[in-house]
Amino acid sequence: MQVDLNGVINHKYKQFNAKKEGHILLKGRSLIDPSDFTRDEFREIFDLAHQIVENPESYRKSCNGKILATLFYEPSTRTRFSFEAAMLRLGGQVIGFSEPNSSSAAKGESIADTIRTIECYADIAVMRHPKEGAPKVASQYISMPLINAGDGGHQHPTQTLTDILTIERLKGNVENKVYGFCGDLKFGRTVHSLIKFLSNYKGVRFILISPEELRVPEYIREEVIKKSGIPFEEVIEMEPYMGQLDFLYMTRVQRERFFNEEDYIRLKDRFILDADKMKYAKKETYILHPLPRVNEISTDVDADPRAQYFVQAKNGMYVRMALILKLLGIY
Ligand code: CP
Q1: How far is the CA of 74 from the centre of ligand 1 (A)?
Q2: N or C, where is the chain less crowded by C-beta within 10 Å?
Q3: Which residues are catalytic?
């Protein structure tokens, strides 16, 4: 174990299994927005997630008899499969839909009625919805925990859990680092949630790389970044800044969020990270991406050890195992 003189975890992981005397209970809570939990509460989830990564087998019966419901009103691969795999690996079971037209939403049932019905059958639920705020509204009708798996262009808090677990496993902690965000920062809910989370930590700096039209929304710039006093730059080129970054968080320009196809076509390939551009990055500048990708990371980057996006996708399952265990009050 490497722990520095202040007891602060130093690097490359392992030591997050240091035990605390008392655990903070998160039983029955919902996770809709990164501001729903305190730093200490998130710490509990990450500590457990690190322990699960180290020894997943010891948790394989933890959720015996429990049921997770997945309500996906929008397509998903990673979030839905990782939640389902998480529950199955914990010994629980899964019900749900990945296509809203196969549920009574197709007959006009409200979200409130749907979630109240699901609560009759499940112990915990996960919802993805194209409308911003839909999971929050749903959570007000139930007492079981509800997890926001992405609401429109707003927030995606469990992607942030995935990102933070990955950052901690690579660098030990999130503080005192330069984070580059590149691509669609306007509609990118993963970016909004991650910025919101990181803005609570010291020594963090942001370089926001996007076309003018896809800059971060004003509420993120004014209410989150500036309010926290985080130093940041908004720039329109990637290469000149790559040498400063500890992490480069690439994002897809999302066709489904554009009203106008012409704008999408004009902007979609504005930033493409390839093996040539990786030469501008430091030896330990890690590349993250919530995925799915389209063209924004060339496949010739995949073999570079700094490319961590598939590791990130795997970490998503572990951290969701931890989240389920905490919200069900099992740990
Ligand atoms: N990162 C993410 O949310 O991926 P999916 O859309 O495949 O769930």
Answers
A1: 10
A2: N
A3: 78-79, 107, 128, 156
Cα-based distances in Å from 195 to 48, 106, 179, 200, 231:
23, 35, 9, 9, 12
Q: Which atom of ligand 1 is nearest to the CA of 77?
A: 7
Asked if residue 77 has its Cβ within 6 Å of ligand 1, the reply is: yes
pTM attached to this predicted model: 0.91
- Which of the following CATH numbers is that of domain 14-155+315-327: 3.40.50.620, 3.40.50.1370, 3.20.20.70, 3.30.40.10? 3.40.50.1370
| CATH 3.40.50.1370 boundaries in the chain | 14-155+315-327, 157-313
Question: What is the phi/psi pair of residue 232, to 5°?
Answer: -150, 155
> Over the stretch 38-63, which tens digit does the pLDDT of each residue have?
999 999 999 999 999 999 999 999 99
Using the Cα atoms of residue 186, residue 191, residue 193 and residue 198 in order, give the sign of their dihedral: negative
Cα 245 vs. chain centroid, distance in angstroms?
Answer: 20
Residues of the chain with pLDDT under 70: 1-21
- The answer to whether 179 touches 249, Cβ cutoff 8 Å, is yes
Q: Which CATH superfamily is domain 157-313 in?
A: Aspartate/ornithine carbamoyltransferase (3.40.50.1370)
Taking the centre of ligand 1 as the mean of its atom positions, its distance from the CA of residue 156, in whole angstroms, is: 9
What confidence tens digit (pLDDT) does each residue in 193-231 have?
Answer: 999 999 999 999 999 999 998 999 999 999 999 999 999
Q: Is the CB of 209 under 6 A from ligand 1?
A: no
Query: Which ligand 1 atom sits nearest the alpha carbon of residue 75?
Result: 6
Q: What number of CA atoms fall less than 13 Å from residue 122's CA on the CB side? A: 26
Ligand 1, closest atom to CA 128?
8
